[in-house]
């Protein structure tokens, strides 16, 4: 990454943290400049507005989840293995890029049109494709015959705490954490 | 309930909805008055400030969770059954009282001291008591030998989506929803 793109990522992560802690509306460009130790005038060299930051964060993350989905859909494996790969995708994105918290914490609701509509379409598409894999798993007798929506939203929701709680320095390693979450969720979903 | 206490509950729920949608900081008493169709001056007959609303919501919910915990701790049943009862407690509170979303959506971070410290202590106490039940279940060989924290936070987090998604009028009944969530989470946790 160039210095400028590194700086931009630092700004985006600081913004995501401020949105989470203060809320999008209450966060000012001044707060953001302070958080990244830049003068407001220098901040504007990197980013034009708070709305632009929100758009960048929302669409970068949406495309990241969708790219992961496209890769996983093409795997020649069972529905259960695809779901395992999707849970890992959620955990990896949560751990690697704090900005993804913004998409989960509903800050995307502050997008203006047409961005809001576009973002909702991407989100809906991701959910439908995920649900199709769950339905295939139920059909194949791999998963418990429950409502696909309940399985989907319970699974989405269950990794949200990583944003609040996960600190890499704790005694629990990132790999062990991942493997334990996978154990809980997969055993919750599959028929044995 | 007297008319006044009904009105107060309506105000609290409207406030919780505004906090969730706009964020606590961005919500004004004027927004709240509009939401409950009162003049600002009448609103102040029921409630003194935004901070008072936040305090009421946070502490009412904290005490509700702790009262549920005290009742469940005293049951003469296995750790697994206690955990099932606790999951039901979380689902019931989510369904019955929208104001509990405030505690989950981290709006409590906006409490001022000493309220913030008091709230954190109550929260920590609830988490410790929940974790003790999980640890007893692991010890007894009922639950998978995973980190109690991972089990606890995955479980807490997994019911958060009810606030965004659950609409009683959908084809899925509230009872069926509850039973499916219990199935997923308990099977994820218990050893068979």
How many domain units of chain A? Answer: 1
Q: What fraction, in percent, of the residue positions of chain A are helical?
A: over 70%
Uncertain segments of chain A are none
CATH homologous superfamily placement of chain A: Tetracycline Repressor, domain 2
Overall pLDDT metric of chain A:
88
Task: Please state the structural category of chain A.
Answer: mainly alpha
Percent of residues in beta strands of chain A = under 5%
Q: Which chains share the greatest interface? A: A-B, 39 and 39 residues
Computed over alpha carbons, the radius of gyration of chain A is 18 Å
3D structure, described in words:
- Two copies of one chain form a homodimer.
- Chain A is mainly alpha-helical and 192 residues long.
- Chain A has a single domain, classed as Tetracycline Repressor, domain 2, CATH 1.10.357.
- Chain A is 71% helix and 0% strand.
- The longest helix of chain A has 25 residues.
- Chains A and B meet through helix 1, helix 8 and helix 10 of A and helix 1, helix 8 and helix 10 of B.
Compact overview of the structure:
The structure is a homodimer. With about 190 residues, chain A is mostly helical.
